[in-house]
């Protein structure tokens, strides 16, 4: 079986829609749809192992089988618990840009929020994440919106509206 066939099998076996399985795996709601679109292109798509493991866990199939095609989808040693655990590759990450899938994650997050200025993405990249699993592009995009709202002190920010008192015309001197 190809990777695409294994993913489709896992989706069918889960009994969920692509959107529901993506969300159960803590991925963006359109992740599986984008995966299937990528398979339709001429070049072989590449996906992060963290995302594929999350799909396997959410679908209840062996992550080893989904990733490699070896073994069985029912292999009990390859089926991960649904209980969230802190993956070692995320615990050691000191900054977002140290995540194994950061370049792809950043590109997809920027596509979701193209109006966010570069300084926000740089701020996030240099920030220490508190993670128990790989964030989705939607999570990073939401974080960028939050940063724009709350961390814009001393940076280019939207113009503030004047209050009514500031708009009042000064009275003319009598005299």
Structure description:
The protein is mostly helical. It has two domains: 3-68, lambda repressor-like DNA-binding domains (434 Repressor (Amino-terminal Domain), Orthogonal Bundle), CATH 1.10.260; 88-150, no CATH class. The chain contains ten helices and no strands. Residues 81-86 and 157-171 have low confidence and may be disordered.
CATH superfamily of the largest domain: lambda repressor-like DNA-binding domains
List the secondary-structure elements in sequence, H or E.
HHHHHHHHHH
CATH architecture of the largest domain: Orthogonal Bundle
The overall pLDDT, averaged over residues, is 75
Uncertain residue ranges? 81-86, 157-171
- CATH class of the largest domain, named Mainly Alpha
What is the number of helical segments per DSSP (H or I, 4+ residues)? Answer: 10
Distance linking N and C termini: 94 Å
User: How would you classify the helix and strand content by structural class?
Assistant: mainly alpha
Rounded to the nearest angstrom, the radius of gyration is: 23 Å
Taken together, the total number of domains comes to: 2
Q: What fraction of the residues are assigned to beta strands by DSSP?
A: under 5%
The general outline is elongated
Helix content: 40-55%
CATH topology of the largest domain, which one? Answer: 434 Repressor (Amino-terminal Domain)
- Give the biggest sheet: none
